[in-house]
Amino acid sequence: MQHYNNQLSPRVVVGTDNVLHDLGFPDAAEMTAKTKLALQIVRIIRSNGWTQKEVAARVGLKQPDISNIMNARLAGISFDRLLGVLTRLGFDVELRVSQEAHERPGSLVIA
Length: 111
What we know:
The chain is mainly α and 111 residues long. The protein has five helices and no strands.
C-alpha cells in the first residue's frame, strides 16, 4: 500500500471554459474566436477537396497564408482577414451584438 504526502499531491484548480484565458493570455477571447473561424475554413476546404493553392487564388491570399490558417498559425492573421476568407468562399458570416445585464466584460462567441 502506497502512502501519499498531501503536500506533494497535485492541486486541482477549476478553470473557465477558455483554457487560453486560464493560461493568462490577455487576448484569449480573440485567439479563441480566430481559432474557431480558422476551423470552419479548414472544414470548408477539406469538404470541397480544394488545394491550398486553389483556395489562395479564390480568396486573394498567398498559399503560405492558407497554410498558416490550415495549421492554426494565426498570429499574423487578423480576425477580419479570416472573415474575408469565409465570405470570399461564398459563406455568410453573421455577427450579433447583444446587451445583457452582468458585471463582467462582454464576450465574443463564435458558434
